[in-house]
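ping. complex inputs:
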Amino acid sequence: MSKLTPVLSAHWDEPDSFTLAGYQRHGGYNAMKKALDMDADAVIALVKDSGLRGRGGAGFPTGNKWGFIPQGDNKDHYLVVNADESEPGTCKDTPLLMANPHVLVEGVIIASYAIRAKHAFIYIRGEVTHVTRRLLQAIEDAYKAGFLGKNILGKGFDLELTLHIGAGAYICGEETALLDSLEGFRGQPRLRPPFPAIAGLYARPTVVNNVESIASVPAIIEKGAEWFTSLGTEKSKGFTLYSLSGHVNNPGQFEAPLGITLRELLELSGGVRSGHRLKFWTPGGSSTPIFTDAHLDTPLDYESVSAAGSMLGTKALQIFDETTCVLRAVLRWTEFYKHESCGKCTPCREGTWWLVQILRDLENGKGTEADLAKLLDICDNLLGRSFCALGDGAASPIMSSIKYFRGEYIAHLTNGGCPFDPVAATLFASSKAGA
Amino acid sequence: MASAPKTFDENFLSRLDAIIARYPRSRSAIMPMLHLVQAREGYVTAEGIEVIAQKLDLTTAEVNAVASFYTQYRRTPAGEYHVGVCTNTLCAIMGGDAIFSGLKDHLGIENNERTADGKVSLEHIECNAACDYAPVVMVNWEFFDNQTVESAKTLVDDLRAGKKPAPTRGPNSVPTFKEASEVLAGFNDGRANEGIQAGDPTLLGLKIAKGERK
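pong. complex structure:
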């Protein structure tokens, strides 16, 4: 028996897994029926008891977020699902929604009922046409089945669900920028407080949750909080999707209890690309400080990854072997942050620009060792000093790579340029996959 | 207020109204409306900005401010097939850089340019959430997974020759830029049931758990 625990992914191998019939064949929408028979506060309590934490990166307890919505305030409440999956390395929500959009729709109904929202939105990035189709169809089918709209299942609960499609802006994955974008503005983050729970969409109480968080709710309602807490670690409960990519023999999605290690995942999946060894990796996307082979046994849960100096993030495990130039990798991420900086705050707008200039020089063998100190100084002015976490994300790869691979930065200077052959790192260079 | 530019027919204008009706507040409709303008025009035209401004009772400057923030809204016409090569770190290293430079040479165009026949435009794109299928090429935002320099060249040749290749994970044939933009404006084209539910990497963990794969 492997350590894997397919729940969300349990039926993805059935060709019609994305249809209403395919979903209902395995009890789909039963959790909704169960939840609508419960008191809304009891639904919130159950999700709180399960210990489910946000799967979008921050790890905030989902039930607590729901509990912050003021009740009896006579205001409209909103649920907004963040499906703007754009963090480099992150590729879990997109395959989930392609294989089973209905589990998200069911989670949306349950969560909206719990927080007393009558209108919910799914904000999906604009660069995934087929996933958009599948969601549009799933929402249409759910309306036809009477699971959305007026007086759902005759229980007196009304819910409209609107799919909102983005247009290419990483920053809209930041929840307050997402709300500005959904209101029809440029996607720039808002000052907090007030938090979305008090003044979110249209200044009304709003819950913003990640796709995977909401998609995890139906199983929790069906099987109970105790089942969920029996999986995972003491403070990181349940199962989650780990996405393995890069220089591995078999990349892919792995649903496992929180706390599994990279070593275990690599053993299951066939290991690092044959003939090569692990050099560095991200535990949860490019914004999480990189790890090395010294962290193979770090349990991949919120606390352990944090204690080891990074963040669990989106559990996007990007694996790079010894053919990869760490400076090239970091420069490319930094160019990404520069491109995606919304320009609202000075440290991020200016800082990312200068970081790119300095890193480009270093990659070309120009500059001096003093430039490393300058990089770190700029990072120091980004980390924790930017308006939102994009600035933190931009600083993380640079700070962590200098910590572990300072010598490689210097080697670019002594070598007069990059000492690596980029061809050796490609997929087609690998004899196995390139065949 | 002036009437809508004459270039837009009633059907188009009524679909703009249908978008507005999705939201509690009209301004929220601006992004899908911009996608719908691209579905009709191939990019965001001045007339498109104007009609949105009129519908939403905004100034054209306000609409422009939004349109210019998001990279998918184009100021110049896209090709019939807009080809995006992921050159974010992981795809770049796995071969995306080689694919992108190979396509530039092959097509004789630079980033964000279009071939003279109007068939293909090329852009290097950011992470498209398919890292387990790297290196990834998108055509009108449909997935073409695990590309090589050669397979990508064949792909653009096929697109220019009027063949409509099937994405790896997507509908049975790739839509045009305008057709895809209509989906992104939130109009279901009825093709959700086409194509596979998941590729092999998506299913890897499940198959291992079920003992179907080691």
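Residues 32 and 110 of chain A are 6 Å apart (CA to CA).
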